[in-house]
Amino acid sequence: MSRLPASKVTKGDELPAKQVRVTRDRLVRYAGASLDFNPIHWNEKFAAEVGLPGVIAHGMLTMALANELVSDWVGDPGAIVETTTKFTRPVPVPNDGEGALLEITGKVTEVSEDGTAKVAITVAFEGQTVLGRPTAIVRLG
């Protein structure tokens, strides 16, 4: 894969925004791939009993979607050398076929002499951020 050249990246660059729908079937596929079958991700009754607003998306799925924005931009998923976040707000996923719409944006906050760039990511659901300070460090081409 061809990575984005370092000469084309500057501090303040904005990544192309992305909208992603998280549906119940996506939760099932993610649970199978990750082996995370916690009932808060598929059982309405259980989710309500533990105080959640309903079935919620896996935090790591939400983080992966944030990182997908960065890997699409840089042109190579292997270019992400570090990623961090805090899980701050659940993403309820209704069982309606439409799911939850995530709005994902990113901005370059630092370009280093070692050929890496730091990207601050924002993931929002219904106008509220759901991840705390997500960032990715990427190796540029």
| Helix content class | 10-25%
Structural class: alpha+beta
N-to-C span: 10 Å
CATH top level label of the domain at 6-22 and 59-139: Alpha Beta
Uncertain stretches of 5 or more adjacent residues:
none
The biggest beta sheet is recorded as: 6 strands, antiparallel
Overall residue-averaged pLDDT value: 97
Q: H/E series, N to C?
A: EHHHEEEEE
User: What is the CATH topology classification name of the domain at 6-22 and 59-139?
Assistant: Thiol Ester Dehydrase, Chain A
CATH superfamily of the domain at 6-22 and 59-139: Hotdog Thioesterase
Strand content: 25-35%
Tally of strands: 6
Task: Please count the helical segments.
Answer: 3
Radius of gyration: 16 Å
Any guess at the CATH architecture of the domain at 6-22 and 59-139? Roll
Bulk shape? elongated
Tell me what you see in this structure:
- The protein is α+β, with helices and mostly antiparallel strands.
- It has a domain at 6-22 and 59-139: Thiol Ester Dehydrase, Chain A (Roll), CATH 3.10.129.10.
- The protein is 23% helix and 33% strand.
- It is built from three helices and six strands, in the order βαααβββββ.
- The chain has helices at residues 24-34, 44-49, 59-74, and strands at 18-22, 80-87, 100-111, 116-125, 128-129, 131-139.
- Strands 1, 2, 3, 4, 5 and 6 form a six-stranded antiparallel β-sheet that branches.
- β3 and β4 (116-125) form a beta hairpin.
- The longest helix is centred in the middle third of the chain and has 16 residues, at 59-74.
- It is elongated.
- The termini are close together.
- The mean pLDDT is 97.
